[in-house]
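seq:
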Amino acid sequence: MSAAEARVIRLLMELRRAGVTDPRVLGAIERVPREMFVSSAFSDQAWENSALPIGCGQTISQPLVVGLMTQELRVGDRMKVLEIGTGSGYQSAILAQLCRRLYTVERHRPLLKEAEQRFKALRIHNITFKHGDGSRGWPEQAPFDRIMVTAAAHDVPPALVEQLKPGGIMVLPVGDESFQDLLRVTRTEDGMDIHPILDVRFVPLVEGIPEG
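struct:
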């Protein structure tokens, strides 16, 4: 076994002990080469269970958080999924392993261009991406079976709930800089059913797109 393979196995065992038990999710994490989604300066830390900077003031999430969010989303292989915040594209690549089609929105154009190149290199063909304001979702493609938000909103955004199918699930962090809760939100006939998962720390969900 190579040192690289050993790092992958060690991370998967750590995730399993911490509660990521869905074999489809673990399989997707194993198949997606995280080292492709971090800068060369951090490549030796790619398979450690830690968040890393990726540019534009953003981060690639800790693998445990990626695993738990993906597991809580309960994605089926025929589902249409929306992701808010493409970032490095790492979470996108994992979701794409599990769903029929992923739609992902990123407000930072340089990050989106880099993610697009990674998807091409990995021959991932079921991702549709857009440079835009993720807080508004992607109404032209709604409704979605599942929505994942990878930035912290102050409250559950009504615009995103409206883009969920009835019975659909959204996983997102909600809170401010001092405290954030990761929530699983299910759209019901009466509104929403909200289930807290764990405390997290994400960059804020910002409206609009950067100039330039």
